[in-house]
Every structure is written in C-alpha cells, then in structure tokens.
TrEMBL record:
It comes from Nipponia nippon. Signal peptide: none annotated. GO terms for biological process: Golgi to vacuole transport; intra-Golgi vesicle-mediated transport; intracellular protein transport; macroautophagy; retrograde transport, endosome to Golgi; vesicle fusion with Golgi apparatus. Keywords: Coiled coil, Membrane, Protein transport, Transmembrane, Transmembrane helix, Transport. Residues 1-91 form the Vesicle transport v-SNARE N-terminal domain. It is found in: Endomembrane system. One of its GO terms (molecular function) is SNARE binding. It is a single-pass type IV membrane protein. Belongs to the VTI1 family. InterPro entries: SNARE, v-SNARE_N_sf, Vesicle_trsprt_v-SNARE_N. Residues 114-124 have a biased composition (Basic and acidic residues). Residues 31-61 form a coiled coil. One of its GO terms (cellular component) is SNARE complex. This is Vesicle transport through interaction with t-SNAREs 1A.
Length: 142
C-alpha cells in the first residue's frame, strides 16, 4: 500500500512543479494565451486535488502504527496545495487588474487620490458613528 502512496506522492510532486511553473507564467502572457494558461492551471489543480483524495484513501488503509508518518505528509501536501491555490488566485488577480487598468485607462495616480478620499471618508464616518453612539448613550441615560 505504501508503494501506491509513494507513487501518488511522485505524481503529486511532478504535478505541483508543473503548476508552479505555469502560475509564474500567467501574469506575463496576454490575450488568449493567458486564458488558455489559466484554464490549464485550473485543470491541473483539479488533478492535484484528486491525487490528494487518492492519497487520503491510501492513508486510511495503512495500518495504524505507520499511519502517523503518512498523515503528517498529507498535512504538508494539503498546505502545499493551499499555497498553490493562493498563488494561482494572486496571479489571476494580477491578470484581472491588468485587464481592468487596460479597459479603464487607469494610470495609477487616480487610485492614490481615490485611496486618500476613502481614508478621509472612513475617518469622517467613524467620527459620526462615535457622535451617534454618544447621543444614544445620553438618550438611554435620560
């Protein structure tokens, strides 16, 4: 049984290496190439999830005295999978930011102005909220 698990481990490591390489390429591509790469990475992530499921099934069938070692490996593989998904999400967000900026003609300077206005408005809202709470407290006390 452990040979099946080790085979899955090898497949998982090869697949995660491929995914990592492709995730790094996503922000550098444009147009249909980028869409195709995103679709390929999504497909490979799904394959990796299926491999993890198979590995979990194998761990359940391993005798209890050796299961601990394999369980700790599974935790690390799940963490690695989570990191890959987060990296992929960040790379897709970078992609969508580029598309948004391209469509809107955003030069970045206006976003700084918007950020400053947002902070000012947030502070004003907090001050108003504190005044309302103080007024409410006075009303409750009377």
């Amino acid at each position: 049984m452990s040979s099946d698990f080790e085979s899955y481990e090898q497949d998982f490591s090869v697949l995660t290496a491929e995914i990592t390489g492709r995730i790094g390429k996503v922000p550098k591509l444009v147009g249909d190439d980028k869409k195709q790469m995103v679709a390929n990475v999504e497909k490979q992530l799904e394959e990796a999830r299926e491999l993890l499921e198979q590995m979990e099934l194998e761990v359940r069938e391993i005798p209890p005295q050796s299961r601990g070692m394999y369980s700790s490996r599974m935790r690390s593989y799940k963490q690695e999978m989570g990191k890959l998904e987060a990296d992929f999400k960040r790379s897709r967000i970078a992609y969508s930011d580029e598309v948004r900026n391209e469509l809107l003609g955003d030069d970045g300077n206006s976003s700084e102005n918007q950020r400053a206005h947002l902070l000012d408005n947030t502070e004003r809202l907090e001050r108003s909220s504190r005044r309302l709470e103080a007024g409410y407290q006075i009303a409750v006390e009377t």
